[in-house]
Amino acid sequence: MILSCRTFVSEVITGYLPSLILQLFLKIAPPIMLCLSSIQGYISHSDIDKSACNKVLCFNIWNIFFATVFSGSVLYQINIFLDPKTIPARLAVAVPAQASFFIAYVVTSGWTSTSSELFRIIPFICSIIRRPFTKSTDDDFEVPSIKYHSDIPRILLFGLLGITYFFLAPLILPFLLIYLCLAYIIYRNQFMNVYEPKYETAGKFWPIVHNSMIFSLVLMHCIAVGIFTLKKLSLASTLIFPLPVLTLLFNEYCRKRFRPNFIAYSAEVLIKKDRGDENDATMGEFFDELITAYQDPALLPVHYSSNVDSLNSPLISSSERA
């Protein structure tokens, strides 16, 4: 009896507890990254969310993918990347061994997170607990907005798993397809009926998606090179070498061709906005208020005192000295 109890406790600790701790870290990471991005000096909500999105994505890829694939201490994981020549071979050995874990991760974490997004149970419970203390009415209800810094990295992580495992474990593809279909239906409903955007993103999160896809493709190429090398398929290894180069060249082309559109507005958009402002009747009042909206103290006129005696009087009067 005691032995069976110890076996059950050991299975719970070794099997359930690590995944629970991982999920807690994944829930805590987005608010922490958002706080770190807010103290970096960004002046807009979109820049803060974009920086936090990058941080959370790197955190998820490192702690879920690489930490699971290269199971071991932190120093062992760092030593792997300090020797770049052995990375493809070690990926070829370690990545296929974790295929069953990531299939289970897609089913458990992916499907569960999508379902919880539909029901929003935690925000509902928080609103019920907070209502008696805030004395808020239905008129004071604040429409929620989507958390780009936590939702986008989670979807991109599943995209990375699909790209890296589609030729190693094709069984993962049906589960990913179901997840993506559920995500499309549920997030479409949330965008239309639940969420209200706080700001116009202007597509600034798309470069993050593009960079993540390029990284996933290059990682997949490295794994393929390592597998073909281990299987001593020299012809396949030689033929796959141009693929990472072509992928990086395509990335460079996209960076030069499309990245300026996400940094600055195009001339067509600015001309259209200027023509719209010409027909706006309130623009005259806006320009009049713009003159006095802000005045630099260094550019304000200096007002000198008209009292001549003040030039000869002491700074501290006799009464104050007494």
UniProtKB/TrEMBL annotation:
It comes from the Eukaryota. This is Uncharacterized protein. It comes from Pistacia integerrima.
